[in-house]
Amino acid sequence: MMIVRAAIFGLVLTAPLVVPALAQVPPAEIGQRNVPAPWWMQQPVIASVGMVRTEVPANRASFDATFSALGKTAEAATTTAAAKVAEIDRALRGLGAERVRITTQFTTRPLYEQYRDKEGNFQTNERPDKIERYAVEARLSLEVRDTAALEGAYAAVLAARPDATSEVRFRLQPGNEIKTWLLAEAVKDAARRARDAAANAGARLGAVKLIDPSGRACQTDVLAGWPSYGSGGRATDVTAPRSMIVSGTPLERSFDMASAPAPAPPPPQTAQVSLQPPLLELTDDACVVYALLP
Question: Which domain holds residue 94?
Fold first, then answer.
């Protein structure tokens, strides 16, 4: 029996049949003396894992802004808070719901009468008939789905003078096009690794026996006991085509950029804030099993 192993996580060259295919009853326990072999090991094969990574700009951003108001009644306080967010809400909606999505939530809190006790400490009289005022907090949550509109939206919110703002949070929502491209790169990487390993071992690649986009087929380990799922290895860096990047945003948008409204210009006397989306990592892997020829 010939068994050769090359790492990636790893390239695995395996050989002759161990147990007939019909005898397989996976999964076997790790360390078991006799373990079943996958069907594609009935002849010498090389199982190659392709692993790739790339970096693309984040294409989603979100942040919150809070506006507070006081009133003698809950209705009066809510009306005041709503008036504070109404104008900025209209300005942001002018950017288009496909670019900026807005959610507003109101929280009402009663403020009770306070008094000093005999020791001079303030106490709160939390009785329904001792409510002096109501505090209402209007929380504006923005999800920016087109990062080209981020700076204009953020500046517009600051110009409305909120009581508090959160940090800007970035994330990546990859589109189908870039995910398909990355998987194709993983399969290419598996083929390259298999060719190099076979050549270095003095062998040749035969026909493709199996292509597993999940990569799990190449994670079996008949030497340690099958299955032996693990992780590790180094991914190959690949660069996404420029056609998949638009203004720092991966393609696959649900709207037409040509017909979308321009970002709102920052109001006068508003500080210019640079909010460049960070680069975030995408990875994928694939398993390709080849017949191995002498």
Answer: 60-171
